[in-house]
Design a protein that fits this description.
The complex is a heterodimer of chains A (113) and B (113).
Chain A lengths: L3 E4 L2 E4 L5 E7 L5 E7 L5 E9 L2 E4 L7 E2 L9 E3 L8 E8 L8 E2 L3 E5 L1
Parallel strand pairs in A: 2-11
Antiparallel strand pairs in A: 1-3, 3-8, 4-5, 4-9, 5-6, 7-8, 9-10, 9-11
Chain B lengths: L2 E3 L3 E5 L4 E8 L3 E9 L6 E6 L3 E5 L2 E6 L4 E6 L8 E9 L7 E4 L3 E6 L1
Parallel strand pairs in B: 2-11
Antiparallel strand pairs in B: 1-3, 3-8, 4-5, 4-9, 6-7, 7-8, 9-10, 9-11
The chains are: A mainly beta (113), B mainly beta (113).
Chain lengths: 113, 113
């Protein structure tokens, strides 16, 4: 069973608010990811981290930012939420070496009104 | 460009066998994953292929042909709980320690009694 946790599961927030989506894993994985998934659509990589103090933008442009100060923690922040940010955000992690599978968190379903 | 195609929907009968196909075009191919995703839940890992051929895990098998850019997931002895979306994902990277995934849109499988 994967030990990767996201909070909150659901969030409804007003336009212009700053939000942080939390993601933590207890597996000691170096690589962590944020994916965005709209209903019925594919997952798109928006952020990627190889390890502490390493972050990269993914394939899909996103106004969100991430930080990786600790191995186990990979929060995603939106400085000013907009309705276009309404989506599901999935966090995942995998081991550093080899092409091992990614373990996904339960996701945060964000609605910006 | 990078593209992954899989059928949008499939229907099958409990106890039967179903094959879900996936074709891909991508640079830096570094393996292909299949994930299962139940509605509202996190994707869970099913299988991984990096070399040509068939990988079998219980009721699930996955096949890869790199020269054809083609994979399939085979589900045997279908159960009602197999109703879910099945995601084909290609891993890109020119070294073994990258693992950025490109996902297909997913195939929604409905298993009927």
């Amino acid at each position: 069973e994967a030990d990767i946790y996201q909070t909150p599961r659901y969030l409804v927030i007003g336009t212009g608010k700053k939000i942080t989506l939390e993601c933590s894993q207890t597996m000691g994985h170096d690589k962590m990811y944020w994916y965005q998934q709209d209903p019925g659509m594919e997952l798109h990589l928006i952020h990627y981290s190889y390890g502490v103090n390493s972050t990269e933008k993914g394939d899909l442009s996103s106004e969100s930012t991430v930080s990786r100060i600790r191995t186990e923690h990979f929060p995603l922040t939106l400085e000013s939420a907009r309705p276009s940010h309404t989506s599901q955000y999935l966090c995942a992690s995998s081991e550093r070496y080899g092409n091992t599978e990614a373990f996904f968190g339960q996701g945060t379903r964000l609605t910006v009104v | 460009g990078q593209n992954i195609d899989q059928p949008t929907e499939m229907t099958a009968t409990e106890g039967a066998i179903v094959q879900i196909n996936c074709t891909y075009q991508t640079s830096g191919f570094n393996g292909l994953f299949w994930y299962q995703q139940h509605a509202g839940e996190a994707p869970t890992f099913l299988s991984y292929n990096v070399l040509d051929g068939l990988e079998e895990k219980g009721r699930f098998s996955s096949f890869l042909s790199r020269s054809k850019g083609y994979s399939y997931l085979l589900l045997k002895e279908l159960q009602m709980k197999d109703s879910a979306s099945y995601l084909c994902a290609v891993s890109r990277g020119f070294s073994s320690n990258t693992g950025k995934l490109i996902f297909g849109q997913g195939t929604t499988l409905q298993v009927k009694p």
